[in-house]
Specification:
It is built from nine helices and 23 strands. The chain is of the alpha+beta class.
Length: about 375
């Protein structure tokens, strides 16, 4: 499998709704798979009659749109005799029409189809990265990510409002609307607020108390006062397909001394990175800057020998954001990528301890000349 494409000849058969490379190249979002190919002569989206009109309106100006049921007519070649596998016939028509019989395909290309094509003498080579140009975002793309960040902040505002409005019963549980407020209800209202603004939120995290020690725990059960609630919100803008990514940790009431100390330490670590991040530094350097701060502040990463669970800062500092929520490059120990203007990355240091929970603060930023453009504007107070 190749890691970086160096050829122009690319072949896709996928839904662009779930294949970011295909959406990027075609400019067209479709829930069903369609055929797309690109050679040095240009790019073509071959779609069904169900999508033909919409594709002609939405595909990039540089992309030609063809009716997949009449590909021979598109190429001006004779049709093959009827019969045989429909997918093989379709791709073989493309090969005959373009003169290309060797293609780069995405790593997610279906194995069944790859074997079918190879058996017919059509070479396909899976590639991890068919669109390396996606790593550097244009000004337009940065604004699309900013829109995603605004959607995340709309969800956070909904959650903050609910937490502020909630009262505390005599057992310490949060009450709202005459019942105990749960992590599930909070998450549902966050997602609904985002949907009303034109976004789609999946996997939102509202993890209370010790559940927050597991960074990907979605959160469940009733919420309590004086405990941290990690809220990680990463919606996709339905129109553009670009994501935003935002995390805030809140406490309804008064945080414990250890939680307050951890929160201040995480905030300091993030601020150090935000000040240092600029073109010329590496993702690994930024991660190490945060990790060193935690160790020096009395929060080293440790693994409990009995439970096998970790405490401290044990995940990467950040990742790129675009048409996928997790893209390259990353701010992590193993990523030596030199930051360039146009990289869009998260900065999300965190501290975790199974004894009291988790703290994470995350902003999405665009690397700019001499520093960053922070796309997040949400407040960073701990206690509500």
């Amino acid at each position: 499998m190749q890691g970086l494409d160096t050829k122009m000849d690319k072949l896709f058969y996928a839904s662009s709704e779930t294949c970011a490379d295909l959406w990027y190249l075609s400019g067209f979002c479709a829930p069903d798979a369609f055929l797309f190919f690109q050679t040095d002569k240009g790019a073509v989206a071959a779609v069904s009659c169900l999508e033909l009109g919409r594709a002609r309106k939405e595909c990039r100006p540089s992309v030609k749109v063809a009716d997949v049921q009449h590909l021979e007519e598109f190429f001006g070649i004779e049709a093959e005799p009827a019969g045989g596998n429909w997918f093989l016939r379709m791709v073989r028509t493309v090969c005959r029409g373009t003169g290309v019989w060797e293609w780069n395909v995405p790593a997610s290309f279906p194995l069944e189809y790859a074997d079918l094509l190879r058996g017919a003498g059509i070479q396909v080579t899976p590639c991890w990265n068919l669109t390396p140009e996606r790593r550097i975002k244009s000004r337009e793309e940065i604004e699309k990510v900013r829109r995603g960040e605004r959607l995340a902040e709309a969800g956070l505002a909904q959650a903050d409002g609910m937490l502020r409005q909630a009262t505390v019963d005599k057992e310490g549980f949060l009450m709202l609307g005459g019942h105990r407020l749960t992590a599930e209800e909070l998450r549902g209202e966050v997602d609904a607020a985002i949907a009303r603004k034109g976004g789609l939120a999946r996997g939102t995290i509202t993890a209370p108390g010790v559940q927050g020690a597991d960074p990907h725990q979605a959160g469940h059960g009733p919420l309590k006062a004086n405990e941290p609630i990690v809220m990680d919100i990463f919606p996709r803008d339905q129109e553009s397909g670009y994501f935003g990514d935002l995390t805030r940790t809140r406490v309804k009431g008064a945080a414990s001394p250890v939680v307050r100390k951890a929160y201040e330490c995480v905030l300091e670590a993030q601020e150090k990175v935000l000040q240092a991040l600029r073109p010329g530094v590496t993702g690994a350097q930024m991660h190490q800057l945060a990790a060193d701060h935690f160790t020096a502040s009395g929060f080293p990463m440790e693994r409990d020998p009995k439970s096998g669970l970790y405490r401290g800062f044990f995940h990467g500092l950040g990742h790129s954001v675009g048409l996928e929520i997790h893209e390259k490059p990353c701010l992590s120990p193993g990523d030596s990528t030199v930051m360039e203007e146009g990289h869009v990355v998260t900065v999300e240091p965190g501290l975790y301890d199974p004894a009291w929970g988790g703290i994470r603060i995350e902003d999405t930023v665009a690397v700019a000349a001499g520093g960053i453009d922070n796309l997040a504007v949400a407040s960073k107070e701990l206690e509500l």
